[in-house]
Write a structure and sequence with these properties.
The chain has helices spanning about 5-25, 45, 65-75, 85-100, 135-145, 200-210, 225-230, 240; strands at about 55-60, 80-85, 105, 120-125, 145-160, 165-170, 170-175, 185-190, 190-195, 210-220, 250-255. Helices cover about 30% and strands about 25% of the residues. Strand 6 and strand 7 (about 170-175) form a beta hairpin. The chain is an alpha/beta fold and about 260 residues long. It is built from eight helices and eleven strands.
Amino acid sequence: MNDNMYERNKYILFQNKNSWDLIADDWFGATALPSYGVYCPDENQLNLLGDLKNKKILDIGCGSGHSLLWCKEQGAGVLWGVDLSSRQVSNAAKLLNNSGYSATLVNAPMEESEGIPIGYFDVVYSIYAIGWTTDIQKTFDNIYSYLKKDGIFVFSWDHPLINCIELEDNALCFTGNYNAEETMTFEKGGNPVTLIKRKLSTYINALAKAGFCVEKVIEDVDTEKLKADREQHSAYYSGVKAEHYPLSFIIKARKV
């Protein structure tokens, strides 16, 4: 990584942390297991994580802790979570403590691995958070190191097509460049955040380079969820869009 990219990524992390600390409460409980994302099948339908009883679990981008809570309710043994936002970590700790559970929560970027045990976890997952990383290869390398042999990694995120296609005058128009992997800055709750757009192949190739065996790539749209929201036309995550292309994707990989 050259100096310019290092400084860019450092700034993105600084900006995103500050913004998420301010808006964390507004996203309390948003997109958490068993849900994987927008209009896609959930864990109850897919069973990607398998039997969680007594398993050691790590949540990348744990947010308000609702996914960790769900895992514990499924019988998970040891809970860990990591999140860039100190406010998210605080909210997750309160949620779990109020539910009678404990977890080790690390306030750090997913690009950093300090303090997280190596070769320890049975399952690592990330629900709509992995796309916030500034360094996808470093993040996947870290996650690979955290897992036991045969451990699984499951993550979900916006489908890359979502930033390329817009609804204009009741027609879907290709307005973006799928091939351009570039930063995208926008506002959440009036605060600036920045993402790096990536192709689906970039995620898969980075997993392979880290040493993972990719077992499943899911782009299915849940038709029942779609039926309930078909009239929503103008939203970023609209049912009209989902009728024609997936808005979310899910990948399951295994450490071999």
